[in-house]
C-alpha cells in the first residue's frame, strides 16, 4: 500500500483564522481544513499502509502505537480548543479522500450544526474523587502484636479506619458533585475507573464531566478547590479545560453520523 487517506480530528464552525503553522498531528503531518455546507473538518493526510482497514485493526492492538496516535490526535484537538469549540471525532476516523470528508459533512450537517450550536463557547472539565488509605498510626505500624487478641483489635481498627475514610470520600464526592452540577450546564457521570487499568492510586468514587461556559471556568475551578478539602484520605483530581468530548454525541449523536470510525472502515 502506498496511497494516502484522510484522517479527521474534529468538525468545527468556520474558523476566524488559519490553523497554527507549527501544529502537527498524526504521523507528524500538518492538519488542514476541508470546508463544506458551512462546516469545517480539520483533516490530516495519513498513509494507507497504517490506516487502511487491515493494518489499522492490527495497530489498535499495539498499545505503543495507540498511545502515540492518541497523543497526536489530542494535541490537534487541544489546539483547536484554544481557537473555537470543536466537535471531536473518534480516534482514527478516516476517509479515502477530501471528497469523502465532504460527503460526511453533507450527510451529518444538520446534527453537526445543532451540536456545535449547543456546545459553542463551552468547555469540558473532568473531576474525579478517590478514597485513599490512611497511613497507619506510628504505634500500630511499629511493634508486632503482643497476642492474638491484640492482633484482632488492630485488624478491627484498620477495617474501621478504611470504612471511615471511604464514607468521608463518598460524602465529599456527593457534596462536590451536587455543587458542580449546579454550576454546569450539563453533566455526564462515567463509570468508576478500574484501578488496574488506570494505575491511579485509591478507589475511584466519582468520575464525572461537566459542561461549563468558557467564561465561567475560573469560577468552576475555584469551587472545586474550595470544596476539595485537604483530607489525606480523599483525593480530588481536576482536569481540563477540554473540548467537550463527553457531550459531543448526547442527544445530537454527532459521532454516530461519521462513517469510517476507529473500527477500521474507510469510506
TrEMBL record:
Gene Ontology CC terms, in alphabetical order: gas vesicle
Keyword entries, A-Z: Coiled coil, Gas vesicle
Subcellular localization(s) per the UniProt record: Gas vesicle
One GO biological process term: gas vesicle organization
Coiled-coil regions listed: 149-182
Any single Pfam family the record assigns to this protein: GvpL_GvpF
InterPro entries for this protein: GvpL/GvpF
Predominant place of localization: other
PANTHER family: PROTEIN GVPL 2
Family: Belongs to the gas vesicle GvpF/GvpL family.
Record-given protein name: Gas vesicle protein
Organism: Streptomyces reniochalinae
Amino acid at each position: 500500500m502506498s496511497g494516502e487517506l484522510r484522517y479527521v480530528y474534529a468538525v468545527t464552525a468556520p474558523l476566524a483564522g488559519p490553523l497554527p503553522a507549527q501544529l502537527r498531528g498524526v504521523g507528524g503531518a500538518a492538519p488542514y481544513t476541508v470546508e463544506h455546507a458551512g462546516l469545517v473538518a480539520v483533516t490530516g493526510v495519513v498513509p494507507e499502509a497504517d490506516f487502511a482497514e487491515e493494518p489499522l485493526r492490527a495497530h489498535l492492538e499495539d498499545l505503543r502505537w495507540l498511545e502515540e496516535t492518541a497523543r497526536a490526535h489530542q494535541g490537534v484537538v487541544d489546539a483547536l480548543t484554544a481557537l473555537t469549540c470543536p466537535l471531536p471525532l473518534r480516534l482514527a476516523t478516516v476517509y479515502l479522500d477530501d471528497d469523502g470528508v465532504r460527503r460526511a459533512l453533507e450527510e451529518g450537517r444538520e446534527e453537526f450544526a445543532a451540536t456545535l450550536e449547543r456546545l459553542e463557547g463551552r468547555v469540558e472539565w473532568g473531576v474525579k474523587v478517590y478514597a485513599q488509605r490512611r497511613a497507619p498510626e506510628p504505634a500500630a505500624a511499629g511493634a508486632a502484636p503482643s497476642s492474638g487478641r491484640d492482633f484482632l483489635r488492630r485488624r478491627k481498627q484498620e477495617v474501621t479506619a478504611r470504612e471511615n475514610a471511604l464514607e468521608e470520600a463518598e460524602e465529599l464526592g456527593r457534596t462536590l458533585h451536587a455543587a458542580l452540577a449546579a454550576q454546569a450546564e450539563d453533566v455526564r457521570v462515567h463509570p468508576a475507573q478500574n484501578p488496574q487499568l488506570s494505575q491511579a492510586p485509591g478507589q475511584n468514587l466519582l468520575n464525572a464531566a461537566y459542561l461549563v461556559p468558557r467564561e465561567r471556568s475560573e469560577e468552576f475551578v475555584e469551587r472545586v478547590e474550595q470544596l476539595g478539602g485537604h483530607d489525606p484520605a480523599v483525593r480530588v483530581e481536576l482536569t481540563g479545560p477540554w473540548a467537550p468530548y463527553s457531550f459531543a454525541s448526547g442527544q445530537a449523536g454527532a459521532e454516530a453520523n461519521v462513517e469510517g470510525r476507529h473500527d477500521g472502515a474507510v469510506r
